[in-house]
Write a structure and sequence with these properties.
Helix content is about 45%, strand content about 10%. The structure holds zinc ion (4 copies). Pfam families: Peptidase_Mx, Zn_ribbon_DZR_6.
Length: about 325
């Protein structure tokens, strides 16, 4: 996550809505695609000079920091990707929705950063999001189908998330983690279609002999195989080849985001290595040091996984697919 400089010289961060130094309004400008301050009197973006107004989700609910060219909208390009929101008459729902939108903006930023911006801007099927709460017996299942990523609103509740994190042994149960995992399912279909060929099954395994729901049930009853660490990036990835793909893709997006952030701040690395093997090596090295920082603060490890050789090949397949899709 890169930072930018306000016209006053102060540093602007991705989630900022105003500059802490000069108090100008700040936000992500759709007109120039960057974080920028807004001139007080003229409401023009100080990065591109276009007249801007706040995204409607910003002015009405404070769940976005977007700005759109005056006359466009009412929603910014990131907010229009959400096609279902929870009941907003409940203030707690607005707050949780805001947490999910903030995670979604980071996901979309990350896709732009690795050249997959087209996937969410004009993909086929287009990438869309639904954020909903359980309605009595009608449960909202977090998942992906036909380009639509659905996240249950309770994943924005830290108490629920912590209980689930312990119960299911998922150290990375976070909002951004959910979004990256579900995007992983979308990415699999975008890159390899509904019936991935032998180049995918050779690396991830053949899904044909496995019934999906039986595989999940077995996992939740018996846990992962003892040697999952030798072959998978997480315990949950051992459930089914396509869950493995989503978990591995999620790790891939984590890696890109962390390296991008470290490079932007000149910490540990000065640039994101262009070569895949060098990027993996950089990330593993950075992870050791960043985990030590977290342990110094009594937090869980930032990168709780070690990458065994079979997972390197899974990541390589995804990296090749992403580079091809991004035209790199
Ligand atoms: Zn400023
Ligand atoms: Zn602008
Ligand atoms: Zn917005
Ligand atoms: Zn999944």
């Amino acid at each position: 996550m890169k930072t930018t400089a306000c016209c006053c010289g102060a540093t602007l961060y991705f989630d900022n809505t105003s500059c802490s130094s000069c108090d100008r309004q700040v936000g992500w400008c759709d007109a120039c695609g960057q974080l920028a301050a807004v001139e007080r009197d003229s409401s023009t973006c100080l990065a591109c000079g276009v007249g801007v107004t706040p995204c409607a989700n910003r002015s009405a609910y404070s769940v976005c920091n977007g700005m759109i060219a005056t006359g466009a909208g009412p929603l910014c390009r990131r907010c229009v990707t959400t096609t279902l929101v929870p009941d907003l008459s409940d203030p707690a729902n607005v707050e949780r929705w805001g947490v999910l939108e903030a995670g979604k903006r980071r996901l979309l930023y990350g896709l732009d950063a690795i050249g997959l911006g087209e996937a969410w801007r004009e993909g086929e099927p287009p990438l869309r999001f639904k954020f909903a709460a359980d309605q009595g017996d009608e449960k909202t299942l977090t998942g992906h189908a036909d380009g639509v990523i659905t996240i249950n609103l309770k994943e924005a509740d830290p108490v629920h998330r912590e209980i689930a994190r312990q119960e299911f042994g998922e150290p990375q149960r976070t909002v951004i983690g959910h979004l990256r995992h579900e995007f992983g399912h979308y990415l699999q279909k975008r890159l390899f279609g509904d019936e991935p060929g032998p180049e995918v099954t050779a690396v991830f395994g053949d899904p044909a002999p496995l019934d999906y729901s039986e595989a999940l049930e077995r996992y939740y009853e018996n846990g992962p195989p003892e040697d999952w660490r030798d072959r998978h990036i997480s315990a949950y990835a051992s459930t089914h080849p396509w869950e493995d793909f989503a978990e591995t893709a999620s790790f891939y997006l984590d890696m890109q985001a962390v390296l991008d952030t470290l490079a932007a701040h000149g910490v540990i690395v000065t640039e994101v290595p262009a070569d895949f093997d060098a990027a993996i090596a950089s990330y593993q090295e950075a992870a050791l040091r960043l985990n030590e920082v977290n342990r110094a603060m009594g937090l869980t490890d930032l990168v709780p996984y070690i990458v065994p050789p079979p997972v390197v090949e899974k990541l390589r397949l995804i990296d090749n697919g992403v580079r091809a899709a991004a035209g790199r």
